[in-house]
Amino acid sequence: MATGQRKFLIVAVDYFTKWVEAEPLATITDKNTESFVWKSIICRFGVPKIIVSDNGKQFDCQAFRDFCQEWRIEHRLASVAYPQSNGQAEVINREIISGLKKRLEDSKERWTEELPSVLWAYRTTPRTTTGESPFSLCFGAEAMIPVEIGVQSPRVVHFTEQNNEEWLRCLLDLVGELRDKAAIRVAAYQQRVSRYYNKRVSPRPLRQGDLVVRNSAISDPTGTRGKLAPAWEGPYKIKRVL
């Protein structure tokens, strides 16, 4: 458990740009969920047209429905017991957890301290689907990352206020084209992924003596080990095939 007894993480991701917002919480309630949407989404990016969420009580309640209705937000609930129906959020959750695991090692209680670094890395890294970073799709320019300061990238070496102003103005003029190209890449990527997985689907028989790993959720169905625990355990050897 992190400082302040914060053990929950509420996450929101923009469907197109892949920009992610996340906030550690001690409890998940309708009040702090509304506060998160207000502070991290509406006050920063404006009122969204649609919010897709899971079926948690903090979302599937009258208070949150009233909140969405007040702001004319269409609220959609994902299919029960089918996380893939809100696949974008599930992907982000996995990436955040993976990034935290790499940084924490045995100090799991420090996850709230490492979270901003994980989010920063995600926001400034080009995504496979769009070919652009979430930062550039949101703001029209790439962020100045720490490594550019140490290594002295060309835009740092040749920086002048006049050149920088002209460069930013040019990027803002092209941001619409940048987003159009990203949308085309997303559509093409989805088609490639669909063809790839359709080709790969084939039966995989298991035989006696094979080594396998087991999903940790089977031995820990209540999640007492926490989400930062390894997702798989083993290997185990198959003694008998039924």
UniProtKB/TrEMBL annotation:
Single GO term (MF): nucleic acid binding
Listed SUPFAM superfamilies: Ribonuclease H-like
Q: What Pfam families is this protein classified in?
A: rve
Which ranges does the record mark as transmembrane?
none
In what residue span(s) does the Integrase catalytic domain sit? 1-142
One BP term from GO: DNA integration
InterPro entries assigned to the protein according to its UniProt record, in alphabetical order: Integrase_cat-core, RNaseH-like_sf, RNaseH_sf
Report the superkingdom from the record.
Answer: Eukaryota
Mind telling me which PANTHER family this protein's record contains? RIBONUCLEASE H
Q: What is this protein called?
A: Rve domain-containing protein
| Lineage, opening ranks | Eukaryota, Viridiplantae, Streptophyta, Embryophyta, Tracheophyta
